[in-house]
Amino acid sequence: MNTGRSTRRRRRLSGDRGAVTVEVAGYTLLMLLALLIGVQAVTWGLAALGARYTANHAAQQARVHGGTAADGKADANTILASTVGTALNDPHVDVNRSATEVTVTVRGTATSIIPGFHPPVTVTVHAPVERIN
Known about the structure:
By secondary structure, this protein is α+β, with helices and mostly antiparallel strands.
């Protein structure tokens, strides 16, 4: 009698053969995808941080007494080349100075980790123009 039970139990368990291998492969794929998304988020954050630093520095250069929009743009290009490096791809800087305010916009894309996905980065900084009374 025990032989019949153990045979039924073996038949029932034999249907699960290989299930663990398929589950491990599926979970590994999900973990790798989560890792790629996490690294992509970090590269986007570094690009945004570099763009924010560049825009702030350019705005400070353009807002001082005697500063110009060209001074701010030159400063932004220097920072992009030396400090930000390749974290921000295809950077474009716009510096506008009016009588009362300086606006600096830095645009570009973050380094792509996920193929075909190029996350955009846009940072705009406004600062009042320095006045000497």
